[in-house]
Write a structure and sequence with these properties.
Layout (H helix, E strand, L loop, with lengths): L10 H25 L1 H26 L4 H32 L1 H11 L1 H22 L14 H28 L3 H9 L3 H42 L5 H11 L5 H17 L3 H27 L7 H36 L4 H7 L12
Amino acid sequence: MDNPERTPATPDVLNAIRRILFIHLILVIGCICYFAKDLLMPMALGVLITLTMAPVVRQLSRRKVPAPVSAVLLVVTVGGFISSLGYVLANPLTEMIESIPRITRSLEFKLLPYKESVEAISEAGKQVEKMAAGDDQPERVVIEQPGIISSTASTVANGLTTVMLAFVLSLFMLASGTLFHEKLVSVMPRLEDKKRALGVAYSVERSVSRYLLTVALINVGLGVVIMLLLFLTGTPNPVLWGVMAALLNFLPFAGALVGVGLLTIVSLGTAPTLPAAMLAPLIYFTCTTIEGNFVTPAIVGRRLQLNIVAVFLAVVIWGWLWGIGGALMAVPILLVVKILSDHVESWKVFGEFLSGREAVVTKPTE
């Protein structure tokens, strides 16, 4: 028997198939990112570091400085700065860790009246449960969890390993110079495609570098201001809090809240009165509020403005996939996706959703 003629698929059916395949692709990529985070997170951080430093390497290359030399100088300079900062903060951080038991006892003493009321209610509830359950109670097994110090040390060690791998990767990528751009041009079939691909690569590199350097300078300024104000108010370890404020400010939304929360806990445990304890957190909150609502929008400008809902979802998703490191890299990754969407015709709708209300959409490179 002859096979009946097959009806060709309509454009609507093809579009539906493409959407289904795209959704499956996103799910597969998410699974890969989740299960291979120990490998992919240093690679992603290394790429972001490379994008940030590449314009500097290119400027030095125009001044007859070889790319490997400038790459080594940049990586060694940044690494030396981070090491020096860690050395300066080692003693204040050690003092703060050693003061945790004292701060805890002070908090318990100040909260003792409230604690007694809560314990009385809790004890009454336990007595009711005991009377209802009878005498036959199964023996409870309590599994001892690792302490705060050991957990913190493990997290810091993993973070340092990730950063070291990222810097090594960025060193090799920066030392290669324009190798990536040459390979990108060589694989494109037509001259128009070569120009477009090279324009997109330079646009991503320039925008990410400008954004990360600008945000880094803003965060450093925020940390310096908070450090000086806390020093003037007599808050212990102002340098440590200033550095912590600068680092936490890379984390959108949650960074300022975490900083205010930690400073509030420490202040309640060390300050003699409640008004004195609230002064340092109020300074921290005021500085981060001014920075987030006025300074950063004015300096970063409209070009890099992103949809705040998209930023929030990106921070949540990447934080769930890669933890704190993923949350810190969420905005730069979203920015790369936004720039690619502006230059790829089929992604323009997606890029429009990622744009802010008054964002300027970059035209595709001819």
